[in-house]
Amino acid sequence: MELVRRVRGGLGRAMEPGGSIRIESTEHGSRAVLAGRLGVADAMRVRADLSGLPDERPVTLDLSATDWIDTSIAWVIAVKRKAVEAAGSHLVIDGASAEAMQLIDTVVGALPEPDPEEARPPRLKAMLEALGRALAGGLATLAETTGTLGLFLHRLGRSLVRLREFRLTALVHHCEAAGFGAVPIVALMAFLIGVVLAFQGSAQLRQFGAEVFVVDLIAISILRELGILLTAIIVAGRTASAYTAAIGSMKMREEIDAMRTLGIDPAAALIVPRVLALVLMLPILGLIANVSGLVGGALMSWIELGISPAMFRTRLVEGTDVDHVFVGLVKAPVFAIIIGVIGCQAGLRVKGTAESLGRMTSSAVVAAIFAVIVIDALFSIFFAQIGI
Question: Does the predicted TM-score (pTM) go above 0.70?
Answer without folding.
Answer: no
